[in-house]
């Protein structure tokens, strides 16, 4: 169970972490500036186990890996959207951050609502209602369970 932080459509990677912060040497230093242009209090208010949700085309823009990395570093448990930019989606899987397609969730929640994710069932529960989400294939779920693609490959080596 965690709080949801709701954003709209076409949230690009520069809105997730602006380019001037990419000069910082570590993701730990960058994470305090996550969503700074959309919600100046996001990095202060998000807690480990919370969720980010958006409508369409989340993570569009550049292919910067730091965008999902700052979310994971802040403890975001998963990102929900109706659709994702392909490279953002792959970057999430690569670092072990679940990116889950959920068509109806954003129409029924607001920032601050408590939600619960059941990845095994492919559902998210908000306000006592279950919303169907894309259930990840077993091979992607295994990659996430091992902490991402690199961690998964390292374990196989």
Automatic annotation (TrEMBL):
This is 3-isopropylmalate/(R)-2-methylmalate dehydratase small subunit. GO terms for molecular function: hydro-lyase activity. The keyword Lyase applies. Belongs to the LeuD family. LeuD type 2 subfamily. Pfam families: Aconitase_C. Coiled coil: none annotated. Residues 36-98 form the Aconitase A/isopropylmalate dehydratase small subunit swivel domain. The keyword Nucleotide-binding does not apply. Keywords: Lyase. InterPro entries: Aconitase/3IPM_dehydase_swvl (IPR015928), AconitaseA/IPMdHydase_ssu_swvl (IPR000573), IPMI_Swivel (IPR033940), LeuD (IPR050075), LeuD_type2/HacB/DmdB (IPR011827).
